[in-house]
Specification:
The chain is an all-alpha fold. Helix content is 71%, strand content 0%. α26 runs antiparallel to α27, α27 runs antiparallel to α28 and α32 runs antiparallel to α33. The radius of gyration is 44 Å and the shape is elongated. It is found in: Membrane.
């Protein structure tokens, strides 16, 4: 580097010389050849710049004279210096030295000749010196190889090299020089350099030439690295400029760029590549295909098929981490690129490759498939699609021979993913959608007890939605599957679920009954509610009140049930109120039963004011059996229910009932609401204060509401506060 700096100063010193030809001849008399040639290169560059001689003649003379130094290391540095000092003096199209100084072809010839000589010197360096120093020389060559690569950079910087010149003149000569070197290190580096320095559009047009030349390289050249570098470069170009990627490449006889790679890799994969190299190559090829031809699944399918052929003869791959990693990457790329699981299903050998992985890896891929399907929500519309999807996610649907233990949280996550898949199933044809759901039901049923508690619930809701669609369809009579058939499947599912998760089954029975009522299936409504009652009786007494409220809410939503069936069900419900374990719960259940008879907004024919009042009176009787500290809160709740019935015009609930209740409450808590509030605030026991304060607030709010009603409606004037 110091020599180069000093020679640079020499260039500045001689720049004003008038007769450059004499100076150029004079330096040739320098005794030592190495200094002589460095001086010639330096003065020659000034000679060209002075334009006292054509640039092409000086360049040709310099590159020929450099043959005088055949020592590999010295020769490489000399020619590199020549290349550096003349890089801005090459005749180029539209350049300063074009014309009498030469043209682009003269520059190409000069650079290629220098390149050829440097490759020759670099290859000779391999065999120089004793054998025991070979490793030292190889290390030295690794550091020197960049010098020969600069020649390719010079060529790529010439504006005059257009596609036709590159294809017909430059590239064939470069490839010929590389191949004839018979040097693994040189070939490896120069092919990678070639790919990096020339434009992408050049590579697309000359793809066959490059790939064919790779087959003539030394056996120990890592073709995978070269191919992958080329494909990744083209893939990035395709992503940025998709309009510049031709469907067919005329220069290659109409062959597609993907076909070119596939054809050539098949020729060399058996002899030149390890299986891991083949897979890495195919992954890059798939990426190229997806970027270049995203709408042509055939190319991705060809890659998957080829990989399957290679893997099917490789035996067990699960013991080779590198192969497992590559196969997983191969399988994930289509999922991430297409963002459509239905497109992945069209890849014929995808599932068979997936089966070659171990359980944990199959499970991981299956979860990625589920996430993709749920994120992008492409509709599953027929049986073939749902079967194909479930085939890919088998590790999540059922236990297999190699199933491993899964953490409880992870298991819950995966099953929730599976359960949500039912919501992407849809079809305008309800008969087809029924078949899709039935296929899902069969698959979910194979999952065993631990899975169905997650998967069957959303399936039930999907069936219910389908039943309503069928019932409301204009062409209902033309459909093969009617809503009653759908409910038969729902009942079968609930029977299975009831044995494993009775609390959830009870809720689903009630929800299904509401839906069946909307579909005017009274017999099915009665059956569903009867089953719900049976499950209710099996529940823990501590939580029965919660389910009791659910039953009342379900019965109140009935619109189309007959009076006889409703009377049977409501009577049964009222009987349950007296069977609750705790008296306060019995009281609450009793006054809530009043809502079963008044008001019935959905079906006024079911209204019965007398029975509603009977429930309220029965609740008052139960209060008397409760403990003193429980009575006040219960009386206030009963007052609110009476008020609700009165507001909704239950003629049996009169003002007298309301006034009597207010008197009873006041007599239990003190002479007035104010005293009750003070007593609650003054209670010494902290726990009692926490209990009494909300009750006091509840009662005050109730009275405030009654005052509001009195101020706006004469109906409420007779209520005494």
């Amino acid at each position: 580097m110091q020599v180069f700096d000093q020679l640079g100063r020499l260039t500045t010193f001689f720049r004003g010389e008038e007769n450059m030809q004499d100076l150029y001849i004079r330096v040739q008399h320098t005794p030592s050849i190495v200094p002589r040639l460095y001086l010639m290169a330096t003065i020659g560059s000034i000679y060209i710049k002075s334009k006292q001689a054509p640039a092409k003649d000086v360049l040709k003379d310099l590159v020929e004279m450099c043959k005088g130094v055949q020592h590999p290391t010295r020769g490489l540095f000399l020619r590199n210096y020549l290349s550096q000092i003349t890089k801005d003096k090459l005749p180029d199209t539209g350049g300063e030295y074009e014309g009498t100084g030469g043209n682009i072809h003269d520059s190409i010839a000069y650079v290629l000749q220098n390149f050829n000589e440097m490759v020759f010197l670099f290859s000779r360096l391999k065999n120089e010196g004793p054998v025991k120093e070979r490793s030292k020389r190889e290390k030295e060559r690794l550091e020197l190889r960049i010098l020969i690569g600069f020649n390719l950079v010079r060529l790529s910087q010439l504006d005059g090299i257009k596609l036709d010149i590159y294809r017909d003149d430059v590239l064939p000569k470069i490839l010929n020089i590389i191949i004839k070197s018979n040097d693994q290190m040189a070939q490896q580096y120069l092919m990678e350099c070639l790919i990096q320095v020339f434009p992408d559009e050049f590579h697309i047009d000359t793809l066959t030439q490059i790939v064919t030349a790779c087959q003539e390289l030394q056996a120990d050249v890592d073709l995978k690295t070269i191919y992958i570098a080329l494909m990744d470069r083209l893939a990035n170009y395709a992503r940025q400029f998709p309009e510049n990627i031709p469907n067919r490449d005329e220069q290659n006889g109409g062959a597609n760029i993907i076909d070119i790679f596939l054809e050539n890799v098949e020729k060399i994969s058996d002899q030149r590549m390890e299986l891991s190299d083949v897979l890495a190559f195919q992954i890059s090829l798939m990426n190229l295909a997806l970027q270049s031809y995203p709408d042509k699944i055939k190319y991705v399918n060809d890659v998957i098929t080829f990989c399957h052929q290679q893997l099917s003869t490789a035996g067990d791959i699960t013991s080779t981490p590198l192969l497992v990693k590559l196969v997983k990457k191969l399988l994930l790329i289509p999922i991430e690129s297409y963002k459509n699981v239905l497109t992945v299903l069209q890849l014929e050998k995808y599932g068979e490759i997936l089966e070659l992985l171990g359980f944990d890896d199959r499970r991981s891929i299956a979860m990625d498939i589920c996430r993709c399907a749920l994120k992008h929500r492409h509709k599953v519309t027929n049986v073939d699609e749902i079967r194909g999807l479930f085939e890919l996610i088998k590790p999540l649907l059922k236990d297999e021979e190699d199933t491993t233990d899964v953490d409880e949280e992870d298991f819950e996550e995966e099953q929730n993913l599976v359960a949500r898949l039912i919501h992407i199933c849809d079809s305008e044809d309800t008969d087809m959608l029924f078949k899709v759901y039935s296929t899902a039901r069969k698959a979910f049923g194979q999952g065993g007890v631990k899975r169905i508690q997650y998967t069957l619930t959303p399936l039930v809701f999907s069936y219910l939605s389908l039943a309503k669609r069928i019932f409301n369809a204009k062409d209902r009579e033309e459909k093969a599957i009617k809503e009653d058939k759908v409910f038969q499947y729902v009942i079968e599912i609930l029977e299975v679920l009831a044995n494993q998760q009775s609390d959830m089954a009870l809720k689903l029975y009630l929800q299904s009954a509401i839906c069946a009522d909307l579909c005017k299936l009274e017999t099915i409504v009665f059956e569903l509610l009867s089953q719900a009652f049976m499950l209710y009786e099996e529940q823990d007494s501590k939580i029965q009140l919660e389910y009791f409220i659910m039953i009342i809410n379900a019965l109140r939503q009935m619109k189309n049930i007959g009076n006889e069936n409703y009377d049977t069900l409501s009577t049964k419900t009222c009987q349950y109120s007296s069977r609750l374990l705790l008296k306060p719960n019995q009281c609450k259940a009793a006054f809530m039963c009043s809502h079963l008879f008044w008001p019935m907004e959905h079906n006024e024919s079911l209204q019965n004011a007398d029975k509603s009042l009977e429930c309220l009176i029965w609740s008052l009787k139960i209060v008397k059996s409760c403990m003193a500290d429980q009575k006040i809160a219960l009386f206030i709740e009963i007052l609110n229910v009476h008020l609700y019935q009165f507001i909704n015009n239950n003629e049996k609930v009169t003002v007298d009932y309301l006034n009597d209740l207010i008197d009873v409450i006041n007599s239990n808590i003190g002479s007035s609401e104010e005293e009750f509030g003070v007593a609650g605030a003054a209670t010494e026991n902290q726990n009692e204060t926490k209990t009494v304060a909300p009750i006091a607030t509840f009662y005050r709010n109730t009275l405030e509401y009654i005052k509001l009603l009195k101020s706006g409606n004469s109906k409420f004037e007779s209520i005494t506060l």
